[in-house]
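On clarity, I found the account of how folds are encoded harder to follow than it need be. Since the whole study asks how a given chain folds, the encoding of that fold should be made plain. The format is easy to grasp once an entry is in front of the reader. For illustration, here is how one protein appears when written out as sequence plus structure tokens.
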Amino acid sequence: DDVRAVIDGLDRGTIVVHGDAAGVDCAAANAARARGLRTEAHPPDYQAYQPSQRWRAPLARNVYVETCEKLIAWPAPWSKGTHDAIKKAKSAGIPVDERKPWANKTE
């Protein structure tokens, strides 16, 4: 699949940084670990926000994007965090490889 092919094409020293969500994040992390690449999960910290503000959690954790050399993203329509990461990366001048949208929520 596209995720495995992209991960297989990464250099050996690459660190795969992801949001730890079910779907493409887990698929990319699993493919990276299978190749012996380091992975780094940044799940949203929902507990840091009051219930009415928890929608901010997936966006707040995206500050790490500005330290990446490149962002590879599979933006699903429902993924506000992914779209925010793409926007932050582009604003910071970081190359973005925007893949076809991830369509399988359960994989």
Q: What stands out?
A: The longest strand covers residues 15-18. The longest helix spans residues 80-91.
